[in-house]
Write a structure and sequence with these properties.
The structure is a single chain. The protein has 156 residues and is mostly helical. It has 2 domains: 9-44; 52-130, no CATH class. The chain has helices at 9-20, 25-32, 36-44, 52-60, 65-73, 80-101, 105-129, 134-147.
């Protein structure tokens, strides 16, 4: 028996429903052609997380991530590098919207990674927009100091 590679999301939902009706793990294993150990893992949620996590994450996001990204980008003057980041943000937002509309376990697993990726891209865009501060000046001095002396004996 091959563990969980052949069991669909619909079958997992049916398996969990039957388990709630007190079917034994051995009966479920036979019915769905998986091991009893795998059945117990599915029932506990150790494998194939439930869809509730997708709904919870989706509630925390705007109804349309693509529209929210467009609103964020609106009014920004984007150079060529920013345009690349903006395109990446739009692409991730479209994927995030698709995952939010899905009810599969794979969507439940993908949503946090996509949300993190979108936030990372938006943070990078925002970072490029801010004015350098004292911390940036210290970092630059450290970078120059660590480069070491040049041919004339001084760091550039």
């Amino acid at each position: 028996m091959s563990p969980d590679l052949t069991i669909s999301d619909e079958d997992v939902a049916r398996l969990r429903h039957l388990a709630s009706l007190n079917w034994s793990a051995s009966s479920l294993a036979s019915k769905f052609n998986v091991s009893e150990r795998h059945v117990r893992r599915l029932i506990r949620g150790d494998r194939r997380p439930t869809i509730a996590s997708v709904a919870d994450i989706a509630q925390a996001l705007p109804p349309d991530a693509r529209a929210a990204v467009e609103h964020f980008l609106q009014g920004l003057e984007l150079d060529a590098g920013d345009e690349v980041l903006a395109a990446a943000a739009r692409s991730v937002a479209v994927k995030l919207d698709a995952v939010a509309a899905s009810e599969t376990a794979a969507a439940a697993q993908a949503m946090p990674r996509l949300a993190d990726a979108l936030l990372d891209v938006l943070d990078r865009l925002q970072e490029r927009r801010r004015e350098p501060d004292a911390l940036d000046a210290l970092r630059e001095r450290r970078r120059v100091r660590l480069q070491g002396p040049t041919t004339n004996g001084w760091a550039s």
